[in-house]
Specification:
The structure holds 2 protein chains of 2 kinds. By secondary structure, chain A is an all-alpha fold. Chain A has 2 domains: 1-52; 54-115, no CATH class. Chain A has 5 helices and 1 strand. By secondary structure, chain B is mostly helical. Chain B has 5 helices and 1 strand, in the order E-H-H-H-H-H. Chain B has helices at residues 15-39, 41-46, 54-71, 77-108, 113-156, and one strand spanning 4-5. The chains are: A mainly alpha, B mainly alpha.
Chain lengths: 115, 161
């Protein structure tokens, strides 16, 4: 239980820090870079290293590559849903989650995880 | 336009909006850990790049833009969508940096953990900013020939002296 409380606080703090930085930056396309900041990764990998060691953390970060590629596809899908189909941000981002899941798990199924 | 930092922009964010992002960030981190523990490192790793916070960020960007337009007596719906789309475009470029982060960490983690974190963060920042800068340059280059073409064709019609 303590582990999950630590994860929650660490994740919340790091995500909020990147989000505040993103709020302050202009232009918006540059601030958007922080939407793909490695905030969850920083919080999680730190704990993983302590719990399971560097080999396990390296294996997790390897499949993170697939997640990051899926995030790129997700962002493109959100852009299209907003600009072409005039959806609002909340439904667009929720619908595009299907793209993230499909690409991430598709890449994992196709290429496999780290050895 | 150069990259600028404007702390006064924080005044537009309401206190509960910080709370939403904190909670979503915390939950995404807990989810990544729980899935890693249940299904192993391969599945857990995917969720290190989960866009959990992105729906909150894009919604906030959209509502801030809409509010500022509505204050001026205009409908800000389209402007809000455009601002959120710009944010998503930036995240798309940032995802290239996130790939660089993952590759750098994965390759160097077993040699030195502190070095791996440092290298991965530097890789993320350099690749993300470079991708953003390159896209700006490419857009500027692709706009100039079109602008020149418009001036030339207007000139040939006699509308430009």
């Amino acid at each position: 239980m303590t582990e999950y409380v630590v994860r929650f606080i660490a994740g919340g703090v790091i995500v909020s820090a990147f989000a505040i930085l993103g709020d302050m930056l202009r232009p918006k396309s540059f601030a958007g870079l922080l939407g793909a900041a490695p905030s969850v990764a920083l919080a999680t990998l730190g704990i993983v290293v302590v719990q399971h060691g560097p080999h396990y953390a390296a294996a997790e970060s390897w499949t993170m590559i697939y997640g990051a590629v899926a995030l790129g596809c997700y962002s493109v899908a959100v852009c299209h849903l907003l600009m072409r189909y005039s959806l609002n941000a909340l439904p667009a981002t929720i619908l595009a989650s299907a793209v993230w899941l499909a690409v991430a798990f598709g890449l994992l199924a196709g290429f496999g995880g780290a050895a | 336009m150069l990259v600028k930092m404007s702390p006064s922009a924080l005044k537009r964010t309401r206190w509960y909006e910080y709370g939403i992002r904190f909670v979503l960030g915390g939950l995404a981190t807990v989810l990544a850990g729980a899935l890693g523990a249940r299904f192993g490192a391969s599945v857990g790793g995917l969720f290190l790049a989960l866009p959990a916070i992105f729906c909150a960020s894009a919604t906030l960007v959209e509502s801030h833009e809409r509010r500022s337009k509505e204050k001026a007596g205009l409908s800000g719906r389209r402007r809000g969508q455009q601002a959120a789309a710009l944010d998503a475009a930036g995240a798309g470029l940032g995802s290239i940096g996130l790939v660089a982060f993952a590759v750098a960490f994965s390759v160097t983690a077993e040699a030195s953990i502190i070095g791996a974190f440092a290298l991965a963060i530097v890789a993320w920042a350099v690749v993300s900013v470079s991708a953003w800068w390159l896209r700006r340059k490419l857009r500027a280059v692709s706009r100039h020939p079109r602008a020149e073409h418009r001036v030339r064709s207007a000139g040939s019609r006699g509308s430009v002296p």
